[in-house]
UniProtKB/TrEMBL annotation:
This is UspA domain-containing protein. Residues 1-136 form the UspA domain. It comes from uncultured Solirubrobacteraceae bacterium. Belongs to the universal stress protein A family. Pfam families: Usp. SUPFAM superfamilies: Adenine nucleotide alpha hydrolases-like.
Length: 288
């Protein structure tokens, strides 16, 4: 059975981007969808009021899901739950309970679930998520996914290798080309540049030789990666663990980076790629 996709939906705002991304990925993989909304309810005069409030928010989330599904051409099952409490905890707990292949959250100017700084929810979800986390840029719609190329921002770390394996699986499952980037800056000398190129080519040959992935060295740091993302369907990057992310690739936190990219960002912790790989490429997920 295909692992489900868990989607974070804001119960009080019309941000359809996470739903659009999750539904499109479900169509590609056949993964069932679990939509999760979360809210804070304080100063409550009684439990009945909280229950009524929760039901009203659940109705709004179901309406948003129905709008994204449109004519209902999604074969996979869709379930909705709305809970009171921390949105990051709700997503992590649901993903763990269901054995999810991916969590999808939004990237808006106020965070994915409400009054939080940009990127905070994505980063809190990542800090303990059992699977990769995709951050959908604001304004994403159903035309997404037509570029035909998946990008991976690669560094020679455990998180970087996990990101490469996840990106290769997604490219296979989507029938897309694979582009693997190493980002350098003006201070990178020629010998370091050559070593980076050699490492990149060996990594592609080992993980994605069947895809004919293209190695690309990007000079210019994060701005160069942001510019390259405008021609991609997805950008995949790794992260360090444990603890809150420590900027391993472009020196940008995932939420901040996601808000500037021209495509969805998928962040993969070291050793956390298998749930996603099995969702997109079941044969590659089998033990050798």
């Amino acid at each position: 059975m295909v692992r489900p996709i868990v989607i974070g939906a804001h119960p009080k705002r019309d941000d359809r981007s996470p739903l659009e991304l999750g539904v499109t990925l479900s169509r590609l993989t056949g993964a069932p969808l679990q939509v999760v909304g979360s809210y804070w309810f304080d100063s409550t005069p009684g439990r009945t009021a909280q229950i009524d409030y929760g039901r009203e928010l659940e109705r709004k989330v179901r309406h948003a899901v129905a709008r994204v599904l449109g004519a209902g051409d999604l074969d996979s099952p869709v379930d909705v739950r709305v809970t009171c409490g921390s949105p990051a905890h709700a997503l992590q707990q649901t993903a763990t309970e269901l054995g999810a292949g991916m969590i999808v959250v939004g990237s808006t100017h106020r965070g994915a679930f409400g009054r939080m700084a940009t990127g905070t929810t994505a980063e809190r979800v990542l800090d303990g998520a059992p699977c990769p986390v995709a951050v959908a840029p604001s304004g994403l719609d159903r035309t997404w996914g037509q570029a035909g190329e998946v990008g991976v921002a690669f560094v020679d770390t455990p998180g970087g290798w996990s990101a490469l394996r996840a990106g290769a699986a997604m490219a296979r499952g989507m029938g897309a080309q694979l582009a693997v980037y190493t980002v350098t800056d003006a201070q990178t000398d020629d010998s370091d540049q050559r070593r980076a190129e050699d490492t990149l080519e060996r990594a592609i040959a080992e993980v994605a030789g069947d895809l004919g992935g293209e190695a690309r060295i990007l000079e210019g740091g994060a701005p160069a990666l942001i510019k390259a993302s405008k021609s991609l369907d997805l950008l995949v990057r790794g992260c360090r663990s444990p603890g809150v992310l420590r900027r391993p690739l472009s020196r940008e936190l995932p939420g901040k980076l996601a808000g500037q990219l021209g495509c969805p960002l998928v962040v993969v912790g070291p050793g956390k790629e298998l749930p996603l790989v099995s969702m997109f490429d079941a044969e590659a997920a089998l033990p050798a």
